[in-house]
Amino acid sequence: MAGTIKGKVTGASDDAPLIGANVYLEGTTMGAATDDEGMYEIDAADGTYTLVCEYVGYATQKVEVTVDGTVEVNFQLVEYLFSKTISVIADRAKERETPVAFTNVAKAKIEEQLGSRDIPMVMNTTPSVYSTMQGGGSGDARINVRGFNQRNVAIMINGVPVNDMENGWVYWSNWDGVGDATSSIQMQRGLSAVNLATPSIGGTMNIITDPTALNSGFRLKQEYGSGTMLKTTFTANTGLIDDKYAISATVVRKIGDGVIDKTWTDAWAYYFGASYNVNDNNRLEFYALGAPQRHGQNLYKQNIAAYSKSFAKDLGYSQEALDAFEEKGRLWNQNWGPVSSSYTGKQAVEGNTFDRYDKNFINERENFFHKPQVNLNWYSTLSDNMSFTNVLYYSGGTGGGTGTYGKFQPDFSRNPWVWDWDKIIAKQQGDTAQTVIRNSRNNQWTIGNIAKLYWKANDNLSTMFGVDWRTAEIEHYREIRDMLGASVFIDTRNEFDTTPASQEKRLGDKVNYFNTNTVDWIGGFAQAEYTLDELTAYGTVGYSSIKYGFTDHFKKGDDGNELSLQSDNISSFQVKGGAMYRINDDMEVYGNAGYVEKVPIFDAVIDDRNGVFADNPANETFLSFEGGLNYRGLDGMLSSKLSFYYTKWQDRTMTRGIEITQGVFDILFISGLDQLHTGFEFEAAFQPMPMFRLDLAGSIGSWNTLNDVSGSYRTVESGTTVTKNYQLAVKDLKIGDAPQTQVAVAATVFPIQGMSIQGVLKYYDQFYADWDPTSRIVFDGDTPDRGQSWLTPSYNLVDMHASYQLPFDLNGVQFKLSAHIFNLLDTEYISDATDNSRFNAYRGDGKNHKADDAEVFFGIPRTFNLGLSITY
């Protein structure tokens, strides 16, 4: 009789499906390659066979199988110690081996839940991770891990850090479309097992793109969603040719009007991967990816009453506070205004002129950027006990964001204010401009190299030594994008413009500032891993040195030439380690600890607004430990993880502008603030039957500051230099910007072969509004404000996801349908909040950390995404 063997092949380290793995019956010609979900199926006569599973870079597995009808056999393949795969470079944590808290998000889950949103949004079902779309612009998302924002979360793509070299931020619009080429994401929370000197204090988000497929084929996916979003993704693979090389490429095109007013998008994305097996001991890989795009932005939070007076009333607003604001609705965006189509003024970027995006409106805030990244990876096996990997990479970048420059003159007769472009254009038509639209440009390049040597000393001890080198140059300037009807704009900021004629600026000219910053980085690290029976332990040490440079092309130095500054080399080190003990096949416990010094970001060393050094900038330090328990039971139906973390951030660095004498401003460089982040995390998966699966993830945190900070500065009063003392009154205040309690539950049913339907419930609580510690500064004789930041309302969200692999193929062509509904119940909620807003607080009763003093973004309302995939 005929039978069937089927199953799934995944990687043991990340549970991601392995595409193109070969599964066959030993001694026969019967076999199959896994599809893009890691699935395989082999028809065979009843009997007993040896089933073999092979995949490049992984240890081959064999299993005896008796066929009697349909048999399911799943494989989890383990990488070789000296595996020639990208996950080695990327420092991926491994199940049952690496003693850190981590969560793997496989490609199947990304496709199941992302729905063409920004990549961080798929991480919201991970413990201690909070992501939002902020104002709703494409690529304007943010992510927060364990209470730390993106500046203290290392984001890596194929093992290469992509955090901004100056300030540590991550701009997800640069990676719009990369989700379509992502093979898996691993979120290592805490200090992580990554050995590079990255800002992985909150965690490390490790994105791995699709490897070059071993089988030829293509995939076309068409999506349509809310905000008239239309997205086309095309992927093609050559397959492995002559057992030597393979090429994969993806192209993405996305357009749409946006869900929030005028947050349109006009984007491309591309991904190219190639691999070449030089010989049995050497392999080369080449990756190139990028996302040239432009999109309308919504960057200004609003008072709650400006979005919804009924929502504000439920939060205790007085009638006077409600009456102070016009209700605009939750889709309102302050960063645009209508304009007469008769206005034909051109816009410009870097000397190139063009028509505005839409003749009927002008975006005050628009982002445009292209940040390509190119990797050349070399994997080499030097001997049975030694291997070497090297990543040479380049990351460019050109683009910027828009805004106004000159006199700020919207229509203040309304609250919130609005833009009346026609009024401004009519006022300055053919005359000298008071207001123009500017581009804030950021042109950059980074070149880096990461080299690692692996040496297996014996069966128990493995070591690794590495070097991390990077150098970057970033050019900042503003240029006139739109003259708004005027013929000339007078700008006196360039000290080298010494005549009235040279101070006359026109379309495309540089204004306001023009700086070039440099960052030079060198680091070394070493790691050892020891395994004995059921115990695995590791330790890592690292050292790095960073030097910053600054040239102001608009300001004169003491010698009359351009002002130039170079910092000294600033060094830091890190040491961390941990151990895991496997109690039995179903349970292991682990612990880790570490001490990390972090060099201050560029802006905390050099103020590039004024061209001054900080006095003795101090390293920030992080002390952390965590412990955890992993358990599997109920005959494989249950998998669970529990962890506890403790992270102390010491000597946090901040800056604040001050007036040292009338009309003369300086900047305070402040350090010494300590804060503590502790919490519990849990996640579990339960699948009692093939047709049903339940997933649970959650975290309960406690994040707060520990101390006040005191200091002094020198100022001038009545012609006399005096010393003034200040204090940041911040002791025992809750950390804002993310919920300290969150739970996610996902229930998935598989009613028929190839179909899945999933409901996801997310709950958020203890969400304090974001606040700036320097806003709590008090001077001699002032009364400190020690009120807690505003506590935003807790909320629930429900999402629905469905997919169906149609049960047929046409000569190898397969079809898959997908559907997503985000915020199914159309819940009104606050996703982002800032306490005691400088701009939008209701001032009738003073600022007192209440709802009417906050500025917020409402969460995105109900949206949908529909997709059709065609695979060959």
Automatic annotation (TrEMBL):
Bilayer disposition of the protein: Multi-pass membrane protein
- Tell me a GO cellular component: cell outer membrane
UniProt domain TonB-dependent receptor plug: residue ranges: 95-204
| Predominant place of localization | membrane
State the superkingdom: Bacteria
Please cite one Gene Ontology biological process associated with this protein. siderophore transmembrane transport
Q: Which GO terms describe its molecular function?
A: siderophore uptake transmembrane transporter activity
Keywords attached to this entry: Cell outer membrane, Membrane, Receptor, Signal, Transmembrane, Transmembrane beta strand, Transport
* A Pfam family it matches: Plug
Record's subcellular location: Cell outer membrane
InterPro entries assigned: Beta-barrel_TonB_sf (IPR036942), CarboxyPept-like_regulatory (IPR008969), Plug_dom (IPR012910), Plug_dom_sf (IPR037066), TonB-dep_rcpt-like (IPR039426)
Checking PANTHER family in the record gives: HEMOGLOBIN AND HEMOGLOBIN-HAPTOGLOBIN-BINDING PROTEIN 1-RELATED, TONB-DEPENDENT OUTER MEMBRANE RECEPTOR
Listed name of the protein: TonB-dependent receptor
Q: Which organism is it from?
A: Caldithrix abyssi
Taxonomy of the source species: Bacteria, Pseudomonadati, Calditrichota, Calditrichia, Calditrichales
